[in-house]
Amino acid sequence: MILTREAILTAVEQGDITIEPFDAGRVSPNAYDWHLGDLIRICEGEELDAAAATRATELVIPPEGMVLQPGVLYLGVTHERTHSERYAQMINGDRSLGALGIWVHVSAPLGHVGHSINWTLEIQVARPVRVYPRMPFGKIVFLATAGTATSYQYEGRKYTRTDGIDISRLYEELRGTG
After folding, report:
1. Which residues of 97-112 are buried (b: 16+ CB within 10 A; e: fewer)?
2. Furthest-apart CA atoms within the chain: distance in Å
3. Average pLDDT, the chain
């Protein structure tokens, strides 16, 4: 079940959902409208290797914006950090960005119960498009769970408490260290 505006506001007030920074005006009928952060990483090289750490150049998105190009994998980050020990989260782009040919989050839209993160975004574009720091960039929905909830924070997973832009850590598993 997806939480409605009223349920999201109540959960934030009761401490069941944390959004930092939080703006009640960004709560839509059944989601929270989030923003692109100030940083972006550009993955380097013609070919990425799942068994090796991805090399990337990190840039600050300037106030005048940055033009993203097709065929390049950009890793961005949400301005907001979200957390809930009660609800799972799902992040998506929105219609406005889709109409610009921006794929905001190519994979992994699920934030498990207990996930406390600034979301790493896998951004691709269909055509050159200028983006700006802290521009509206998508929606997060909150999902009620059934059964016994286990906090992601205590599972010892590789993406616990993401503080910035994360590269793929699949190489840790492929090397037998994950």
Report:
1. beeeebebbeeebebb
2. 48
3. 88
